[in-house]
Design brief:
- With 186 residues, the protein is mainly alpha-helical.
- It has helices at 20-34, 40-47, 61-73, 85-102, 106-111, 117-130, 137-160, 171-181.
- The protein is built from 8 helices and no strands.
- The protein is elongated, with a radius of gyration of 20 Å.
- Residues 17-76 form the HTH tetR-type domain.
- Pfam families: TetR_C_1, TetR_N.
- Keywords: DNA-binding, Transcription, Transcription regulation.
Length: 186
């Protein structure tokens, strides 16, 4: 009978100590590869560490999911402070959809979360893109909700029909949203 050696809180490859960044990086890699974040035990196996080592950095799986989702959301397009608000929203939308397509389980993770960290990243970027329009709070919230619901619908359609939905198909619906937001539409 052989006894497996105990795994410690350091990755087997190299002498680099385990860190939050290493755990996040591996979780994001597995999400892109598998379409979902594996159990903490499977993540620990991929990192070649004891599963309990993850709890030193994340209180539970929900905390890990929020960190992964927020980290990925920070990769989406950062709008520039300029007057081409329509171009900025188009780039933000395409970037967001590309992220969701590259990480199929991400939308499901975000929709199941009780925290708002990842959503705050998108909202901050949308606020920057829409700043030239000067929407009041109520109109901004309505525009945010409409755009996000539309983008999530497109993301779900892409997941159901990979390769069958082109981002160029965003132009018509976005033009309709833009027409309702234009300063003279107030």
């Amino acid at each position: 009978m052989s006894v497996k050696p105990k795994k410690r809180g350091r990755p087997a490859s190299g002498n680099q100590p385990l860190s939050k960044a290493i755990i996040l990086s591996e979780a994001k890699r597995l999400l892109a590869q598998q379409g979902k974040i594996p159990s903490l035990r499977a993540l620990a196996t991929a990192l070649e560490i004891d599963p309990m080592a993850i709890y030193h950095y994340f209180a539970n799986k929900a905390a890990l999911l929020e960190a992964v989702a927020t980290s990925l959301m920070k990769e989406i397009y950062q709008p520039q402070d300029n007057s081409d608000w329509q171009g900025e929203i188009r780039q933000l939308s395409e970037s967001y959809l590309s992220l969701l397509a590259a990480h199929p389980g991400l939308l499901e993770i975000m929709l199941g979360m009780t925290s708002v960290g990842p959503a705050e990243v998108f909202v901050e970027r949308l606020e920057l893109a829409l700043a030239p329009v000067g929407l009041d709070t109520g109109r901004f919230e309505a525009a945010r909700d409409l755009l996000v619901d539309y983008l999530h619908g497109v993301a779900l359609a892409i997941q159901c029909n990979p390769g069958g939905i082109a981002l160029s198909g965003l132009d018509g619906p976005l033009a309709l949203i833009f027409a309702s937001l234009a300063p003279d539409a107030n």
